[in-house]
Each structure stands twice: as C-alpha cells, then as structure tokens.
Amino acid sequence: MTKREQIKQSFLAKMPKDAINQFLSKDTTPIPVLLMSLVVGVLAGFVGTYFEHAVQFVSETRTQWLKTEIGSALPLWLAAFIISGALAFVGYYLVHRFAPEAAGSGIPEIEGAMDGIRPVRWWRVLPVKFFGGMGALGSGMVLGREGPTVQMGGAIGRMVTDIFRIKNDDTRHSLLASGAAAGLAAAFNAPLAGIMFVVEEMRPQFRYSIISIRAVIIASVSANIVFRYINGQSAVITMPQYQSPELNTLWLFLVLGGLFGIFGVIFNRLVTFSQDLFVRFHNNDRKRYLLTGSLIGGSFGIMLLYMPELTGGGIALIPNITNGDYAAGFLLLLFAGRIVTTMICFGSGAPGGIFAPMLALGTLFGYAFGLIAQQMFPELPITPGMFAIAGMGALFAGTVRAPITGILLVIEMTNNYYLILPLIITSLGAVIFAQMLGGQPIYSQLLHRTLKNEKLRQEDLPRDGN
C-alpha cells in the first residue's frame, strides 16, 4: 500500500467520527426543554382527546334526555330549546364571567401571546374553555373543537413553564408554540398539520430555531400518540379513498381554487362583521350577552330536530356529502344556510372554533361543483368526491392563508394521499386569488380586532371614572 493510499484511508476512517463530534459540539439543544415539550404534548393530547369525548357525552346525554324524561313531560321542540339553551348559557356565562379571552376560537389569543401582546391566564382559560366549550358545542351550535384545543394546548405550554418557573423567554415561547401544535394534532389526528400550522400560519409570531422546531415536533407527535392510544388510529373522517385524477381534469381544480379564493375574502369579512354586529347589540352587557347566547343555543336545539344538517361542527356531515346523498341544488342551499349559521354562532362569541365549519363548507361547495362539472363536461372522467376533498383544503387556504397546513390537514384527516396534486393546485389557486383581492388571513384579522377593541375599552375607562 502506497503512502498516499494510507493517508486516504486514515482520513476516511477519521471523517465519520470527526463529523459526529462536530455535529454534537454544535448541538446545544437543552434536553430539559425537549422533555418539557414532551410533557406539554402528552398533557395537551389528553386534554384535547377527552375534550372531544366530553362534547360527545354532552351531545348524547342531551339526545337521551329528549327521548326520555324531559321529552315526555314537555313538547319536544320546547324541551330541545330549554336543554340546548341551558347548555349554551353555561358556555357564555363562563366566558363572560371568568375569561373573556376564551371567547371564539382562541387561536388569535395564542398568536398574540407568542408576540408578547396578549396574556395567557391558563388557570382561567383551561377550565373555562373546556367546560364552556362542552356547553356551547354540546348545544348543537355550528362550532368546532380545534380552536379550543389549540388554545388549551397553548395554555398548557404556559402552565408548564410557570410550574417549572422558566424565566428564559425563548423557552417560554417554544413551549407555548409546542402546546398550540399539540392541540391541533390532538383535535384532528394530524401531527404533520399541527407542526406546519405553527411553522406556517403562525410564522409572523413563531421564533425559528433548532430548539423551537424540535420542541414543536416532539409535542405534536406525543399529543397524537395519546390521541391514537385513546381513540384508535383511524382517520377522523371516514370517506371513500380516491385515486389520482386524470390530467385533463386538473384545470377544473384551479377554477375551484379561484372561486374559493374569492369566497375566502368574503367569508373573513363576514366573520368580523358578524362579531361587530353582536357587540353592538349586547354592548358587552352581561344580561344581554347571556340572553342572546341562550336564545341562539335554544334555537339550534330546535334546528337539531328538524334540520340537523345546519347544526353542529360539520365533521359528521362530510361523509354523507361525499357518499353522494345530496343533489347539487340542495348542497348549494345547505352551503348558504351553513354560512349564516356559522356567522351567528361564531360571531356571537361562543367558546368554539371555526376550523370544522370551514371544512364542512368547503366539502359542500366542492362536491356541488364536482356534480355541476360532471353534467357540463360529460366527456371528462370527473369524480365529484375529489372536488369535495379539494374544497376542504381550498377554503382553509383562502381564509387562513396557510395552504401547506390545509393540504396536510385534509390528507391526514381523510387518508386520501393520492389527491395531493389537486389539493396543491386548488389551494394555490385559492391563495393567489385571495391575495389579489387584498384580503387578510382570518386569525390576523381577529387578533387586530381584539387589540383594537381592547384599546378602545382602555380609552373609555377614564371617561367612565369621570
């Protein structure tokens, strides 16, 4: 062996060891931070999963009461009104009395906390959001549980840092973001979407670093493991599994994305308009606020009996849509009706999210679009269910402006991995059209509105004192 070959072999033998040592010397991730992110993920997984079970228990108990005790003593519609109104009253009262920041989705509050401009009173938010959400969602209102689980997850992240007396601002920030990711992962059995939601949607607030990214991943994965341990590993939505669409139909997905981009801007404006309308009506007076919320909850109790498709978060409705149970005309009517009911429930300030209602709206319009396209272009191999799934991601992208999160969320929720290309096309089209129209992401709008109203209230305090 020549001297040159000996030097070469010596270098190759040393290189892996030196590379590993160099990597380890640069890896300064504090192990306690990762362990705390694991704790945050596990706790958020338990809270998020059992929050779903609690809402389901309340809904089933409400139905059982209607069938037995109360339903036999009162007219069915009156019993439904009283039960749902009482459940909604619990949610509205807890929010107004103990934690106003728990109203609505709660995601803007976490984003504000990550920016250091909103407090995280976890000792109030956790019980109020959990039990208040049980009442509001259990009453049959058009609300989702993903917003509450994200806010509760973030609150758990802050709780852990307070318990361990963490003073480092970056660590507190990382665990807050980890809790938010874990909350979404536990809500929808979607760990990748939970990670990407923080990285993409919360990108203006999220502080990118090796530590923060690892903490978010660990929390999201551990929360999802808890969810799967309790609920099983099946997808959240049971629906047909589709193959990749034909290439000559892809342009239709771009058209659908453009329509959702336009609608996304309108939808976001309707949300803030409905919130402002309710505030002007009750003027933050507790009696008016509770009376309004109870009447809304009671009304949805009646609707549960006669028009259940217009009530609830909408996740349970999605399989029925994709199974072809409805005609295009009825789907469009249902789409319009659920827009109204979504604005009423979310705009009123009830403790519930808007993710699930948006996914249901996307499915409704997407499937109707597919049916209409099938009639207009009979020569094309069109499967309406594909457009329903693409619509779910497109509306999310058009309103939240997080297309990658929307794509991952829909794929993980439905297990339709072959539809990634049409999902990308539709979501990209929605984002481009929404940006062209100048619309803002929904959660940014809600956070700005919260900060504006808070500033106005602070300015009015001295006047009231005089």
UniProtKB/TrEMBL annotation:
It catalyses: 2 chloride(in) + H(+)(out) = 2 chloride(out) + H(+)(in). Keywords: Antiport, Cell inner membrane, Cell membrane, Chloride, Ion transport, Membrane, Transmembrane, Transmembrane helix, Transport. Signal peptide: none annotated. It is found in: Cell membrane; Membrane. GO terms for molecular function: antiporter activity; voltage-gated chloride channel activity. It is a multi-pass membrane protein. One of its GO terms (cellular component) is plasma membrane. The record marks E201 as: Mediates proton transfer from the protein to the inner aqueous phase. It comes from the Bacteria. Belongs to the chloride channel (TC 2.A.49) family. ClcA subfamily. Homodimer. PANTHER family: CHLORIDE CHANNEL PROTEIN. This is H(+)/Cl(-) exchange transporter ClcA. The lineage of its organism: Bacteria, Pseudomonadati, Pseudomonadota, Gammaproteobacteria, Vibrionales. The gene is clcA.
